[in-house]
Amino acid sequence: MEKTLGKCFRSPTANYTGRVSVYGSWYDYKVTAGVPAIGAMLEVTGFTTSELLVRVNNYLFESDVNYLG
Description:
The protein is mostly beta strands. It has one domain: CATH 2.40.50.140. The protein has strands at residues 8-10, 17-22, 25-33, 41-47, 52-56. It has a 5-stranded mixed sheet, with no helix packed on it.
């Protein structure tokens, strides 16, 4: 999960939890800061043994080198 730190992706739902595909593997995530909305940019800030910890950061864009499309 270390490879996901600093990566960002668009939220597919407005839920605080969900799943995202990173380099072909599926990970559960949980929003720890901010209010998620459909299309909000989420940034991976940490991880536990079972999930990625993300925060809402709408200052990031798809053109960012760390965007997971």
